[in-house]
TrEMBL record:
GO molecular function: ATP binding; protein serine/threonine kinase activity
SMART domains: S_TKc
Domain (Protein kinase): residue spans on this chain: 1-197
Protein species of origin: Aegilops tauschii subsp. strangulata (Goatgrass)
SUPFAM superfamilies reported for this sequence: Protein kinase-like (PK-like) (SSF56112)
Protein name per Swiss-Prot or TrEMBL: Protein kinase domain-containing protein
Gene3D superfamilies attached to this UniProt entry: Transferase(Phosphotransferase) domain 1
Length: 201
């Protein structure tokens, strides 16, 4: 399989994505992560960020999750247990607050990172880009979240992003639940585009 760069570089060149493109990319990421989080052997990525999301082809319309250097494999009987980060902790800008605070964690840390990536795809700018990465993570750990400024995203995408970066890990959905919500959003966006084309003809 030949890769054409990563999502970080793509967003740097393209800026914010259309809602439909962002949803399609988010679906690719969520499918990959749902597979990793699937039992019997759950894999927590622990360093999900745009640089670790690879573009698969020259059309840049398909993504793969890569770089498992910090991943942790958890046997099925321990899939719901919580762990403490040891050694490397991942990238600060996309880091869940419980990781930054060195608290116990589970696979929901990947859900938080996914939310930050979804935000970046919709806004075209990394979360708290005016902050240094460590300061951004500290700001997030204090309860702050990035502000949506773009008018192009839908309320459903904003709501999904916000629930995925919830401070309470129990509120964060699983990737299987995220996939269901993204599919519904995609259907709604496609339907809207279809009606718009009919109206504009």
């Amino acid at each position: 399989m030949h890769f054409q760069g990563d999502l970080h570089q793509y967003l740097k060149e393209k800026g914010s994505l259309s809602p439909l493109t962002a949803v399609n990319f988010a679906l690719d990421i969520a499918r990959g992560m749902a597979y990793l989080h699937n039992e019997p052997n759950v894999i927590i990525h622990r360093d999900l960020k745009p640089r670790n999301i690879l573009l698969v082809n020259t059309a840049a319309n398909h993504l793969k999750v890569g770089d498992f250097g910090l991943s942790k494999i958890i046997k099925s009987q321990h899939a719901n247990d919580v762990y403490k980060m040891t050694g490397e902790t991942g990238s600060y800008r996309y880091m869940a607050p419980e990781v930054f605070k060195h608290r116990k964690y589970d696979k929901k840390v990947d859900i938080f990172s996914f939310a930050m990536i979804l935000y970046e795809m919709l806004e075209g700018d990394s979360p708290f880009s005016s902050y240094e990465p460590y300061e951004a993570a500290k700001y997030v750990s204090d309860g702050h979240r990035p502000t949506f400024r773009s008018k192009g995203h839908t309320a459903e995408l904003k709501e999904l992003t916000e629930v995925c970066w919830a401070a309470d890990v129990n509120l964060r959905p699983s990737f299987l639940e995220i996939l269901k919500r993204l599919e519904k959003i995609k259907e709604s966006l496609a339907s809207h585009d279809h009606h718009w084309h009919l109206f504009s003809q």
